[in-house]
Design a protein that fits this description.
Structural class: mainly alpha
Region (Disordered): 1-26
Protein name: Transport permease protein
Mean pLDDT: 86
Family: Belongs to the ABC-2 integral membrane protein family.
Strand content: under 5%
Number of domains: 1
Low-confidence stretches: 1-30
Distance between the termini: 13 Å
Strand order of the largest sheet: 1-2
Helix content: 55-70%
Largest sheet: 2 strands, antiparallel
Organism: Ideonella alba
Domain ABC transmembrane type-2: 53-282
């Protein structure tokens, strides 16, 4: 049996309009972009519906986890820790928990969807479509951004009842929320492409994503750390996502928000380009 032609990484057939450089079917000029957007929109809808139908697990569970973190750490440290000289600890903790939940769920959405499709075998139904790598990327990562933002908003709404963190600049909040979710959605696609079974995916999340998130200043300011660990924190891109996001609430942060924006924006571009390259090559998508 011949392998499907129009899959990411496989050169399409030729027509009067010539080959499609994005890897999909060749079409009449001017209609290719419309077709790509229609395909991406359909796949995006399917991915959003996938996590929304089990929202008690995908949305409710992370919100509950964040509330438990807040109740435990806030109760223990509220009277003993003041951050930035004036910010109550519970208020300081809330943006960190929001961003941590957003990042972890954006990663989980793309990675779990792709690995489940690979293991159950239904990925073949996408491989036989003329979807381009760009369509795959926009749909999967777009859905992960939606899930991450919805979870983050849910955590914020529930936890701000304990100690409203205020809002200094909503632009910084939105920029870092979207960039962080895009970066983690892209990284989730990379993990989903690489992993061939669930324990590999669990190892990626438990030994890479979780430690880097927990050690990124969610529960503390890095200025409270010894010198060595302060320096080490500056090599963690997750730190810049959380610190820049927190700046939008308080107007102060451990580093300049512009430095955080440069690091997070650069990391997002690099990981997005890497993800598109893997999709275009068909890495571990075809037998």
């Amino acid at each position: 049996m011949n392998a499907p032609e129009n899959v990411p990484g496989r050169a399409p057939g030729r027509s009067q309009a010539g080959p499609d450089p994005l890897g999909g079917s060749a079409t009449v000029p001017g209609r290719r972009g419309v077709g790509m957007l229609q395909g991406a929109r359909t796949l995006f809808y399917k991915e959003v519906l996938r996590f929304w139908k089990v929202s008690f697990q995908t949305l409710g569970a992370p919100i509950l986890t964040a509330v438990l973190y807040l109740m435990i750490f806030g109760h223990v440290l509220e009277d003993h820790v003041t951050v930035y000289g004036r910010v109550p600890y519970t208020a300081f903790l809330i943006p960190g928990l929001v961003m941590m939940s957003l990042l972890q769920n954006a990663f989980a959405n793309t990675s779990s969807s792709l690995i489940q499709s690979k293991i159950t075998g239904n990925l073949v139904f996408l491989l036989v479509t003329p979807l381009s790598p760009w369509a795959w990327y926009l749909a999967y990562v777009g859905a992960s951004v939606v899930r991450g933002v919805v979870v983050g908003l849910g955590v914020l709404v529930v936890t701000m009842w304990f100690s409203p963190p205020g809002l200094d600049n909503i632009a910084w909040v939105l920029v870092f929320a979207v960039l962080g979710a895009t970066l983690m959605g892209s990284l989730g696609l990379v993990a989903g492409l690489w992993a061939e079974k669930f324990d590999q995916m669990a190892a990626f999340q438990n030994f890479i994503v979780m430690p880097m998130t927990m050690l990124a200043g969610v529960f503390y300011s890095i200025h409270s750390l010894p010198g060595f660990w302060q320096a080490a924190s500056h090599f963690n891109p997750f730190f810049y996502m959380i610190d820049g996001f927190r700046h939008g609430f308080f107007g102060v942060s451990d580093v300049s928000p512009w430095l955080s924006l440069a690091v997070v924006g650069g990391a997002t571009l690099v990981v997005a380009a890497w993800t598109l390259r893997l999709l275009h090559s068909g890495y571990k998508l075809r037998a």
